[in-house]
Protein: aldehyde dehydrogenase (NAD(+))
Amino acid sequence: MAARRISSLLSRSFSSLPAPLFSRGTNPTLVRQISRYSTAVEVEEPISPPVKVNYTQLLIDGKFVDSASGKTFPTLDPRTGDVIAHVAEGDVEDINRAVSAARKAFDEGPWPRMTAYERSNILLRFADLIEKHNDELAALETWDNGKPYEQAAKIEVPMLARLMRYYAGWADKIHGLIVPADGPHHVQTLHEPIGVAGQIIPWNFPLLMFAWKVGPALACGNTIVLKSAEQTPLSAIYAAKLLYEAGLPEGVINVISGFGATAGAALASHMEVDKLAFTGSTDTGKIILQLAAKSNLKPVTLELGGKSPFIVCEDADVDKAAEMAHFALFFNQGQCCCAGSRTFVHEKVYDEFIEKAKALAKNRAVGDPFKSGIEQGPQIDKKQFDKILGYIRSGIECGATLETGGERFGDKGYYIQPTVFTNVKDDALIAKEEIFGPVQTILKYKNLDEVIQRSNASRYGLAAGVFTQNIDTANTLTRALRVGSVFINCFDVFDAAIPFGGYKMSGQGREKGIYSLSNYLQVKAVVTPLKNPAWL
Ligand code: NAI
Ligand code: MG
Structure:
């Protein structure tokens, strides 16, 4: 039931557009309260977040502790750039302490030795606690990240609980096989936890990335050292604290806030870490692989960048296609690894599509993410804000047509106007590189072969959207596109059971679903001679 609700929220099934979460102009009273970016004069005073920051330390061996150096760093409110709180800054020594705790919890503690049913029950209790603290978790996420509170409260935090229940369901169904062999041998495989899992997560969906990594690691009986993103350290510490409240034994999850080049690199290089999972940029992914190779050859899974095509075919219902393409790009301030960031539109519907895409962008509700009805908050930080504005300038300079937007929104914080470019050429930077912001890039195409070739001419291969009413076109595109996810007449459907990951430089391995379990298991073959067997 919950899964259905979440997926319909995310997939924007048109029969049930959730109001006010993704609605545009459907609720007249709401529309009057909020500023469309094109008419708003200034951003109002920030709303006071309805939550207190209680946890700012590192979580090692089940206890809150300061960093070994005593250092802290500020986490900022993207609405203003003001400091929310000072958080412990983990570094090499803290990673060492956390890995020792995780190692001990794995080698000597009760976690890998308890029954899978007991582990499952702890995950279920954690899911209950997430639901109990839904609004605090959502408020922390919005404050630290800038995403609309309604989306955090109605999608992300419920999905965190859903993912934990999904993995609780797997915990007691993980087992090996009896394998028929040629000779007189009994052969079985044991699926064992891999050991200490290092996990490095980004800032765009802090709680979901926590769930995608922590869920399968715990279901398989591993222990964890997780490094949160320096932009958004608050929600992971809170969630891990709830895990202990749910009965997790000491040391099973350790959370270190800190920076990539210090704490992150120490985790990736650690000799006692048995597996590493990373989500973030392709450039950092390459560094992580090198660190793993130079240390102990730990296996690595990577969820990296994307430049996903969203293909609008000639038979598409243009209203619906424009809405879905808008959602595919602008959701989460455009800060999605799988954002539909190359909108390919067939020449027959191109002009009509552009008018609709432009109108949708102009009508997008931008403003304080704590305000009801807001669809787009600020970008995460000044670095991303400047980078996005740089891409916008490069789009203008290379001759693409700026249809709407193109500038900052308001004069405080990191808000950017929803921006639409048309007449974009394939070799433009805005058509090749990950912008990670509210900038839609529209390209024209003539036929299927051409759009397949152009879609695949990217170093990325994370996802694709296909908008058509023709089943044959859908099937042709589905098989031709070299990407890890194809969304047909929908986008960003992220149920717990659906695997996610990339081809090419978008990553290695799959998260979520049954496929994620193999990232956290070793397979041991056990062979015993069979004496006088009745059969082989
Ligand atoms: P990043 O990849 O540098 O950071 C992601 C995580 O990796 C953070 O926890 C960071 O502390 C850690 N990290 C950074 N350098 C590290 C190192 N040398 N060793 C170990 N860990 C390290 O990404 P950043 O700088 O936040 O954003 C840059 C770009 O990356 C964005 O503009 C966007 O294009 C992309 N990105 C993609 C994401 C995705 O979901 N695939 C998420 C975040 C960013
Ligand atoms: Mg922050």
